[in-house]
Specification:
ATP synthase subunit beta; alpha/beta; disordered C terminus; five-stranded antiparallel beta sheet; SAM-dependent_MTases_sf; globular; protein-arginine omega-N symmetric methyltransferase activity; eight-stranded mixed beta sheet; methyltransferase
Length: about 375
């Protein structure tokens, strides 16, 4: 993790324009046109920097496919359905979902698959993984996907959208920024002046945070875009990510390289920088534009409700002892609540057009506290 070309560019920008807000730094780390982490490499799997749920087991994608089928039936089984995935990794989840959907020929024939991916390296991997699939199109943004009834899947998508960080001082909330210290290293600082009336926008829990607390927020534009799409054109979106059920103070800005946490200011562009997702904020924004919200619940609860234990048992029955052990370990990884499991850290939120009053695997928003 030596000095990167992007580090030198960021230092030059700070020297010329002053301290850089955290959101701008995160945006450059991930999406810089030449040196951005997400435009230059395949970060997934054992040889990459992190592993996502679809890479853990085929069961994850299969169950999301069957979940999509249940929503399609609730929608009245439209003759044309857009199955959209945001940030589709290597295409593993979509391949597994489509394999499960082949058992429903009327739905499979109705599908048009749309992959929203900006990383050219991953797009190549997706094309190879999904080479036998008809009616599949790639896009840089969901804005390019044609209108129509849609089911949208977003697994580990919102955590990489840039965050604003605010630091509480005696005189109010200040935007957190990145500056250059006396040794030429990047360091965190805070804007000299507080953001006017910022506390008025905050939930009471955050407003009561002590001096020195950090609060993170993302603009609502992305979630509102999804919510308005399903509200107006029929359908639902499923958001799966790691984060918290309630808006609260806390610094979750982090970097991961080679499956290990590292300093997010050390080698920009060479590590994955993320922050936890505020699911209460997502739900509130979706409801504000008139979509119906389902959940959030923990990933472990969601997967159990949609049948992962039954699916695991069926796979293990036909497997060799070694493969059966792998399936058991994968089930544990996806659903367990301990440090090594994804079951409680990851949350699942559904958003739909208002007529869909219930969606498989998800409770109503009022029950969200039970999932924590």
């Amino acid at each position: 993790m030596s000095d990167s070309p992007l580090l030198n560019e960021i230092k030059a920008l700070i020297k010329s324009s002053g301290p850089m807000p955290v959101w701008r730094y995160m945006e450059l780390c991930l999406m810089h046109p030449r040196y951005g982490y997400y435009v230059s490499r395949d970060p997934l799997g054992r040889e990459g920097d992190f592993t996502t749920a679809p890479e853990v087991s085929q069961m994850f994608g299969e169950l999301l496919g069957l979940w999509s089928a249940s929503v399609w039936k609730q929608m009245g089984s439209p003759q044309a359905l857009r199955l959209i995935e945001l940030g589709p990794g290597r295409g593993t989840m979509m391949a597994d979902a489509l394999r499960a959907l082949r058992v429903l020929p009327p739905l499979y024939q109705a599908l048009n698959v749309h992959m929203v991916e900006v990383n050219p390296v991953l797009r190549e991997r997706q094309m190879a993984t999904l080479s036998g699939i008809r009616n599949i199109t790639w896009h840089d943004t969901i804005d390019d996907v044609p209108e129509g009834p849609s089911i949208i899947l977003a697994n580990e998508y919102f955590d990489v959208l840039p965050i604003h960080q605010m630091v509480k001082r005696e005189d109010g909330w200040h935007e957190r920024v990145i500056e250059i210290d006396g040794n030429g290293k990047l360091q965190f600082d805070a804007a000299a002046e507080p953001t006017p009336r910022f506390d008025v926008l905050l939930p009471p829990l955050v407003r009561a945070a002590p001096v020195g607390a950090v609060f993170e927020w993302r603009p609502d534009s992305e979630i509102m875009k999804l919510a308005m799409r399903v509200r107006d054109q029929d359908g639902a979106a499923l958001i799966i990510d790691y984060g918290h059920l309630r808006s609260d103070a806390g610094d979750t800005f982090q970097a991961i390289a080679r499956h290990t946490f590292t300093d997010p200011l050390k080698a920009p562009g060479q590590a994955d920088v993320t922050a936890h997702v505020d699911f209460q904020a997502l739900a509130r924004a979706a409801e504000d534009v008139g979509a119906r919200v389902h959940g959030p619940v923990t990933q472990g609860d969601f997967l159990k409700r949609v049948g992962i234990e039954t699916r695991a048992a069926a796979l293990m029955q036909k497997a060799t002892p070694d493969i059966a052990t792998d399936i058991s370990l994968a089930l544990k990884r996806l659903t367990d609540t301990g440090r090594s499991g994804m079951g409680s850290m990851f949350k699942v939120l559904g958003i739909s057009e208002p007529r869909l009053t219930g969606i498989a695997g998800l409770s109503d928003l009022e029950q969200a506290g039970e999932a924590s």
